[in-house]
Amino acid sequence: MAGIGAASRKPWLVGFVVFALSVAAYAVLTSQWPGVWKHTDASVYRAAGDLVMHRPGALYTDKLGAPRLPFTYPPFAALLFALPSPLPFAVWEYAVVAVNVVLLPVIAYACLSLAGLARRPKLTGTFLVAAVALWLEPVYMTTFFGQINLILLALIAVDLALPERSRFKGIGIGLAAGIKLTPLIFIVYLWFAGFRRAAVTAVVTVVTTVIVGFAFLPAASADFWGGRMMRPGDGPERLVNQSLNGVVSRLAGEDATAWWLAAALPVGLLGLAVAVTAGRRGLGLVAFLACGVTSLLVSPISWSHHWVYTVPALALALSFTGSRALRWTAATAVAALFVMWPSWMAEFRGIPSSLTVALSPRGWLRHVDHDGGKEYDWQGLQLIGGNYYVLAGLAFLIGTAVYLHRTRTREAASPIASAPEPADQVQQPLDVPAR
Length: 435
Prior knowledge:
Elements: H1 2-9, H2 11-32, H3 40-54, H4 75-82, H5 89-114, H6 119-133, H7 137-145, H8 149-161, H9 171-179, H10 184-192, H11 196-216, H12 218-225, H13 244-252, H14 257-280, H15 284-298, H16 310-318, H17 324-338, E1 340-344, E2 347-348, E3 351-352, E4 359-363, H18 381-385, H19 388-406
Antiparallel strand pairs: 1-4, 2-3
Helix pairs in contact: 2-6, 3-4, 5-6, 5-8, 5-16, 6-16, 8-9, 9-11, 10-11, 10-14, 11-12, 13-14, 14-15, 14-19, 15-16, 15-19, 16-17
């Protein structure tokens, strides 16, 4: 009984236990299921780092790693990958998964800080968000491929959560943009939302990464910034490309660049307007999510594992100032849309699945019939199911724009968490009293 009483006085401890159990379940899954990790992207990163050490001029001409894919990140990223490149690939595999899992609470804490939550409820929410996020399809597939999406997300989230007066604000976003170009949109957001010093710091940081790239990899840098690097071989029409370009490519069945640009321009402007308006009103988490979703929608390729912004979406759902029912309904909706849903494996350790209860986790998206170019023949619900990441992103931007229009002042009644307020006004998520 004493233990139960102690847990009730420390609700964050309950959240931590839930997160620990989630990580333990993930560890059991990855140790028992064959092929639960593919880590093709990690092999490309390691190969890029190795090229930096031995043949830097081939960085953007060779196809790398186990999947024989081109390297599409800036030279600065390759320099970072070069540091651990001598390590055995098995070390890379475990290290990248460990880093991703550890970063989940960091990202959740930064997101809930942007929502303006008190310390104790923020700790509880942090572990609950991280526990569920581990099983969201974009997060799960990030660990599956050995991707760096969560590392970039952490750099951006922590940066945005820093106080405006912090001299370090802008460095994280600049580093993220120096590693991968898509976070550049956050610099535009910082400038127009009024965080001018942070925006300048981010620009200086990005420029520094470019200079470092030219200093150490001049030929590769000329290739990358000159636009001569190899393009990805995968077509934009593939199911897992959940961007506007992916949608129009699947609908058109041919080169749809003009249609994509026609759609991306207004969506990009809408998304930035939503983010800037939310940021100016102190709705930091809303602005973060709006900016991230916009980058995913307008990018030519946004694989489903790039949609790690489902983590701040889950944090936003749990930080509503409305009723408990509203918060849990919103959180359940996010989890239900993006959770990894099991499906039958063809075989389990060489035994046909008909003789075993062998399930492989895969998101709802991959249950849509898409093999052999069937994307071009979708009808009805298949069109919705095969594009629902994009549809959900558009719905969020449009819904948030309507909300911001109807509540034009920060003092208006808000179902969305706002930026930090004085201690006696900070909202309490999950109905946990602050202490």
